[in-house]
Amino acid sequence: MGKQKAVSKDLTEKILRECHEIYTEGEDCLTNVADLLGEKLLAPRKKITVMLMGNHSAGKSSFINWYINENIQRTGVAIETQGFTIVTSGKKRETLSGNATVHLYPEFKPIMKIDGMANYIQTEITTSKAQQAELVHFIDTPGLVDGDMKYPFDVNEAILWTANMVDLILVFFDPIGQALCKRTLDVVEALSEKHHPKLRYFLSKADEAGDECDRQRVLMQIVQELCRRPSLNKTCFDMPTIFITEKKKSENTGLNQINKVCLEIEKTINMTIQTTLNTLESDCEKIAKNVEKAIETDDANRAQNLKNNARWIFYSAFLFLLPSLTFTNQIRSLLCSAPKDYPAFCDYLQFSERDPFLKLVHIFPSEMQNTVIKSLIFLWVLIFILYKFATRSKPTMPRQKKKELQRKSKHVIDNYLPKKESLYDKYLRESIEEEF
Questions:
Q1: Which of 402, 377, 410, 200 is nearest to 299 (CA)?
Q2: pLDDT at position 433, please?
Q3: CA 350 to CA 415: how far, in whole Å?
Q4: What is the pLDDT of residues 131-142, one digit of tens each?
Q5: β-strand 199-203 against 168-173: which pairing, if any?
Q6: How far out from the chain centre does Cα 190 lie?
Q7: Which of 270, 249, 26 is nearest to 132 (CA)?
Q8: What CATH number labels 47-256?
Q9: Residue-wise over 276-287: b if at least 16 C-beta within 10 A, else e?
Q10: Closest CA to 204 of 151, 250, 158, 260
């Protein structure tokens, strides 16, 4: 069984890594193709993100230490976690400050806009390979308390913002006096309104809640208080009891359901794999469709531009006809004032006597003719400009870019979609084998 889990973890990591590389690695990666189309694609993450929240001393940091099998987070009765700590797996043990954290995770840059937050976010990198640690980012949040406790930043706003970035939210309730903390319940209610599918509730430190009757009484109190809030009273409520224990001790497994927390994390990882593969397929098909649409639009624009240019030549000749006749007539008037000098040329220009422009002008009294001429010239120029605007060329892409898009689209269809099918087959095949 242990060997199967190791293979499953390796395959999971491979699938998420290769999907991420399809989006980000190489000249023909999906994000580059999307950029050519003027679109933006978000590369899938190689790990899921799990946020832990709850009242002060609820055991959030202790759970992270237990899960990764390393004492990386400080624990105790005092308020040890005052800021946000991202715990992730890496090549070497390291602690990153706020600026380094934002550089590593640029998606968290907006949280730095919260006043006072810059000095209260950090990353702890561990080399742990316990359980699914290599596939999980844990976000440890400050313990929530009521009363005069003042946080160096708006902790409610920070938690609600972070919830948008995570895949799973584990809510820990401490049975020793703090479970009904109003601040905790207010934040949980706000989270439930927007992120209900992500929320999972647990009664932590269940071994300290007394006997079975005491534990049931605590559970009833918490559930009753939660169900008084409309946004939390939606579906059947489940709150497994958990506590941290040494692996060597065999505790009452009916009381300690900590494996359910691990199961929720594993389910989230599996759902992330399926979502990532499905998104990869839809993004490949979307890019291929958009490339085809862009090429069709470019072809249509080129054909339309050709028609517009032909119309422009025709209408330009027509628009210049009347002024040309008038201009010709003026030349005739100048040259033929002495017909004896240019008799043949004057005969050639006789047609200009039928100049409709001058005939139109001569309809008006002589004192108005200059005004009429200026008005007609202005109207002609206006028509010329309006028609030029109406027949302006539509944008087209360079032929080199067009060929590049066609090549990249073919690469996406011929390589990435078969790759997705292969990864899906491996994932499903192993899931079936482990089931049996």
A1: 402
A2: 62
A3: 74
A4: 888 889 999 998
A5: parallel
A6: 23
A7: 270
A8: 3.40.50.300
A9: bbebbeebbebb
A10: 260
Q: What is the reported pLDDT for 5?
A: 44
> 370's torsion region: left (phi>0), alpha (psi -120 to 50) or beta?
alpha
**Encoded amino acid at 412, one letter:** V
Question: Domain ranges in the chain?
Answer: 1-43+286-436, 47-256
Total number of residues shown for the chain: 436
Q: Name every residue whose Cβ is closer than 8 Å to that of residue 432 and which is 6 or more positions away in sequence.
A: none
For 67-128, give the DSSP string: HHTS--S--SSS----SEEEEEE-SS-EEE-HHHHHHH-GGGGGGGGSTT-TTSEEEEEE--
Residue 200's H or E segment, with its range, is strand 199-203
**Sign (positive or negative) of CA dihedral 202, 120, 155, 49:** negative
User: Which of the two residues, 252 and 167, has the higher pLDDT score?
Assistant: 167
Q: Residue 361 is which amino acid? A: V
Closest residue by Cα to residue 423 from 13, 3, 31? 13
Q: Using 50, 70 and 90 to split pLDDT, how confident is the model at 335? A: low
